[in-house]
Automatic annotation (TrEMBL):
<dbReference type="InterPro" id="IPR013320">
    <property type="entry name" value="ConA-like_dom_sf"/>
</dbReference>
<feature type="domain" description="GH16">
    <location>
        <begin position="42"/>
        <end position="301"/>
    </location>
</feature>
<keyword id="KW-0732">Signal</keyword>
<dbReference type="InterPro" id="IPR050546">
    <property type="entry name" value="Glycosyl_Hydrlase_16"/>
</dbReference>
<dbReference type="InterPro" id="IPR000757">
    <property type="entry name" value="Beta-glucanase-like"/>
</dbReference>
<dbReference type="Pfam" id="PF26113">
    <property type="entry name" value="GH16_XgeA"/>
</dbReference>
<feature type="signal peptide">
    <location>
        <begin position="1"/>
        <end position="24"/>
    </location>
</feature>
<protein>
    <recommendedName>
        <fullName>GH16 domain-containing protein</fullName>
    </recommendedName>
</protein>
Length: 370
């Protein structure tokens, strides 16, 4: 079972998540990539690099649906305050590290970005150097479909406070049960239905013995690496490759799944994945406290507690609000996100009856949203 703390991600999320998920799907000019659901021949369809990165995301700047002590800001605010930046090799997503935001007032400024383009199936490669961690933080790199929970949620990187193991999980509409396994063993929770178990979803924490440094301070200490997520009609698998052990085929730009080895988690079971997961946007955010980090903060003995605050959440908010200097490590540094897909069956049959070049327009539409 998941730690009891996870059950605090209550079903109140179910209504409020509708807001960002609708926004995620209404971007004029964005491209939908509906890849094939099985096979091994992956081609690059979308490529997020430092030079195009921020033009391929929209900035969610409304209230936090998970009650964090956070203010998500728009692009102009993020750029002018230095919360986002790019260099030749990477982009950064940071938070405010200079001002106090005491309990009762507005939360600490941060960003929550949602990709314009959407995807069904694919191999998602996130190459990152650094991720947020520490007391009060709740970072996430995830995929989300429209009309939550009808089209599902795939949480690739998620954790809170001083966690050292990454939590990978799926959240879905009813009748999706996962029995898969991987290096982390049997999944800790098998029912992905958001209306069950307080929306803790189905998934598992990474095994830090099998795959050390897969989250937070540990990940940052080794210069990160590549998170790989393969989503097919039959399974959703998660890997983390530390910087010094990235498969050569990934570095070469032609990922060969047979060289990836045992995944950290393999979600596969009596779930029709295609009827529960579709049309996902990529989301990256750094939240503070809220439904997950806030409610578990009080049980994290390494985090400063306010004995008179009255609750775990208040203690978290007091630390986040009053200590800007403690959030200098709460940033993402990302080199790239690459999305590979197998040509969809319809496109493949078209290519057989005409020429192989009919496959190409699908891939080349990657540039549409730039
Ligand atoms: C889930 O399965 C149950 C039992 O088979 C069925 O009654 C119900 O209609 C299903 N719900 C959905 C949303 O498919
Ligand atoms: C993928 O890797 C396997 C195992 O090393 C190898 O046999 C196969 O030829 C590779 N496929 C490609 C397309 O390079
Ligand atoms: C996914 O997007 C495509 C293209 O816009 C659309 O045709 C399809 O109905 C969408 N599917 C879902 C489940 O939203
Ligand atoms: C601790 O909580 C008390 C009571 O809510 C509050 O007055 C005080 O400012 C908090 N202390 C810190 C350091 O945030
Ligand atoms: C917060 O920062 C101070 C120094 O500014 C440091 O002494 C303290 O250990 C930090 N606390 C946490 C929980 O990171
Ligand atoms: C792999 O897919 C690409 C693009 O869809 C296609 O051009 C190529 O012929 C395919 N290769 C094989 C071996 O099927």
């Amino acid at each position: 079972m998941l730690p009891s703390s996870l059950f605090s991600r209550t079903s109140t999320l179910s209504l409020l998540f509708l807001v960002p998920s609708i926004l995620a799907q209404s971007i004029p000019g964005a491209t939908f990539y509906g890849g094939g659901g099985s096979g091994t021949n992956y081609s690059l369809v979308d490529n997020y690099t430092p030079s195009n990165f921020f033009s391929k995301f929209n900035f969610y700047s409304s209230y936090d649906p998970t009650y964090g002590h956070v203010q998500y800001v728009d692009y102009n605010t993020a750029a002018s305050n230095g919360y986002i930046s790019s260099s030749a090799n990477s982009v950064r997503l940071m938070v405010d590290t200079t001002n106090k935001y005491p309990r009762g007032g507005k939360g600490r400024p941060s960003v929550r970005i949602i990709s314009d383009n959407t995807y069904t199936h694919g191999l998602f490669l996130l190459d990152l150097n650094h991720m947020p961690f520490g007391c009060g933080t709740w970072p996430a790199f995830w995929l989300l479909g429209p009309n939550w929970p009808s089209n599902g949620e795939i949480d690739i990187i998620e954790g809170v406070n001083t966690n050292t193991a990454n939590l990978m999980s799926l959240h879905s509409s009813p009748n999706c049960t996962i029995a898969g396994s991987g290096q982390s063993g049997t999944l800790e929770q098998s029912n992905c239905d958001t209306s069950q178990n307080g929306n803790s979803g189905c998934g598992t924490k990474a095994d830090t013995t099998a795959v050390p440094n897969n989250y937070g301070a540990g990940l940052n200490s080794i210069g990160g690496g590549v998170y790989a997520t393969e989503w097919t009609s039959n399974y959703i698998k998660f890997w983390f490759f530390p910087r010094t052990a990235i498969p050569a085929s990934i570095t070469a730009g032609t990922p060969n799944l047979t060289e990836f080895g045992l995944p950290m988690a393999n979600a596969q079971g009596s779930c029709n994945l295609d009827s529960h997961f579709a049309n996902h946007s990529i989301i990256i955010n750094t939240d503070f406290c809220g439904a997950y980090a806030g409610n578990t903060y009080g049980s994290d003995t390494d985090c400063p507690q306010n004995a008179t605050a009255g609750s775990s959440l208040n203690s978290c908010v007091d630390f986040v609000g009053n200590n800007p200097q403690n959030f200098t490590q709460a940033y993402w540094s990302i080199n790239s996100i690459k999305v590979f897909q197998i040509a969809a069956a319809a496109v493949l049959s078209a290519s057989m009856s005409s020429s192989i070049s009919s496959v190409v327009p699908v891939a080349s539409s990657a540039s549409v949203s730039d």
